[in-house]
Every structure is written in structure tokens, then in C-alpha cells.
Amino acid sequence: MSELDNLIKNRRSTVLFEEGIEISESELEEMFALNKFAPSAFNLQHTHYLVLTDDAQKEKVYEASQQYKVKTASAVIVVLGDVNAHHHIRTINEGLLNLGVLTPFQYEQESQSVTEFYETRGRFFQREDAIRNASLSAMQFMLIAQDRGWDTCPMIGFNAEELQQSLNIPGHYVPAMLITIGKKSESKQRPRGYRKPIHEYVSFNKMHAE
Ligand SMILES: Cc1cc2nc3c(=O)[nH]c(=O)nc-3n(C[C@H](O)[C@H](O)[C@H](O)COP(=O)(O)O)c2cc1C
């Protein structure tokens, strides 16, 4: 088995974290410096991470989630997707324009077509795409964290509106999920849940009947 195979097989959603373990901003920054290479639609990089290490801030997440592990995690990370990510297509491509990789004509064309792509599909699609892109980034982040000896749990059990208000998250960001990160407590672990065999969740060439 490769290192990646092991990493994937050993990742578990942490039920409870060891209390009192700190994670430094510099270590988190190292992880995010690697995580930025995640793919995103049109390279728009829709994802924003709000990292909470402060107890008072974590308490607000506890209030909005009522999940105890939030209190014991070293950090709670709110994974946000920007529904307005396409507004930044010009800024994102400026570097390629300045390097001459994109001609001014190509730059204009790309800016217009990406803007049109999102504007014609509307707010529902923009929201979906924000969550889609943030979710891919979040999965990669969890594997990076695991590789560095940290345990994580993705979480959707929270009141998004309450969280958005108490943490002053601007309305154009949609919370895709929370990630709690820390060192798992050996005292509490669930056995691995059932996984569907391949033939139940993969179809080749055409969908198989349910
Ligand atoms: C999008 C998403 C949301 C989840 N939300 C929660 C949650 O709110 N609380 C929790 O304890 N676990 C949550 N989980 C963890 C799942 O329960 C867990 O991934 C699943 O049972 C499989 O277990 P494993 O990750 O250990 O393999 C979530 C997982 C995902 C992917």
C-alpha cells in the first residue's frame, strides 16, 4: 500500500479530541500553503477558511452546533464558499496577463465568459458551486492535516444562520461545513461504518437500476 492509501484508510472522523492541545498558527499556515493547490472551477478559489483557536470564538460555534467536540478541538475551522467568487476573475488572471501567458484579448474573453457563465446560471448555481469548490478544498485539507499527525472531523450539524451572525460572516459566504481539528482521544472511537461495495456505488458506461 502506498503512503496515500494508508492516509486515506486511516482517516477517521474524530468523535472526541484530547483537551488542552494547541495548534499554532504557523503550522496551520503551512497546511494552507499546501492546500492552496486544490483545484477550483476557472481557478476562482471560492474557498475561505475562518480558523478559530480562541475559546470565546469556539464557544460561539458550540452554541450554534451543540456538538461537544467543538469545545475539545484545538481549532474549529469554518469552511466558507464565496458565491461571488466569479467577481474576482480579472484579479485572478492579472498575473497571467502581466506575464504574457494570456494576451489582452484572451484576458478580456476569459473575464467575460466566466462572468457570463455564473450570471446566466444564477444564484442557486453560484451557491452550489461555492459549496462544491469549498468541499473539494476541505477534503484535501483534512488529508494534509492527517499527514501531519492531526485528526479532523467534517461537520454539517450546525445552525448556519446563527453561526453566520455570531461570527460576523458576510452574506456572500456560504458555510459549506466545519472542520474540527486536534488530536483524537483514544477513550472514544467508533468502529468504521459500513462502506458500500464498488458495484453498489460505481456504474460503468450506464447507470445500473436501483
Ligand atoms: C459533509 C459531512 C458532514 C458531517 N457532519 C458531521 C457532524 O456534524 N458531526 C459529526 O460528529 N460527524 C459528522 N460527519 C462525519 C461522518 O459522520 C463520518 O464521516 C461518517 O460517519 C464516516 O466515518 P469516517 O469519516 O470515520 O470514515 C460529517 C461528514 C461529512 C462528510
Unreliable stretches? none
Q: Specify the oligomeric state.
A: single chain
Cofactors and ligands? flavin mononucleotide
Radius of gyration: 20 Å
Proportion of beta-strand residues: 5-15%
The count of DSSP E runs of length 2 or more, i.e. the number of strands, is: 4
- Which sheet architecture does the biggest sheet show? 4 strands, antiparallel
The helix fraction, in percent, is 40-55%
SS-based class = alpha+beta
Average pLDDT metric: 97
Helix count, per DSSP?
A: 8
Spatial sequence of strands, sheet with the most strands? 1-2-4-3
Characterise this structure.
It is built from eight helices and four strands. The protein is an alpha+beta fold. A four-stranded antiparallel beta sheet has the order 1-2-4-3. Helix 2 (25-35) packs across helix 6 (104-147), helix 3 (55-65) packs antiparallel against helix 7 (160-166) and helix 5 crosses helix 6. The two termini are 33 Å apart. The mean pLDDT is 97. The structure holds flavin mononucleotide.
In short:
With 210 residues, this protein is α+β, with helices and mostly antiparallel strands. It contains eight helices and four strands. Helix 3 packs antiparallel against helix 7 and helix 5 packs across helix 6 (104-147).
What does the secondary structure layout of this molecule look like, with pairings?
Elements: H1 3-10, H2 25-35, E1 47-52, H3 55-65, H4 69-72, E2 75-82, H5 89-99, H6 104-147, E3 151-155, H7 160-166, E4 173-182, H8 198-201
Antiparallel strand pairs: 1-2, 2-4, 3-4
Bound molecules: flavin mononucleotide (FMN).
Residues 12-13, 67, 153-157, 177, 192-193 line the site of flavin mononucleotide.
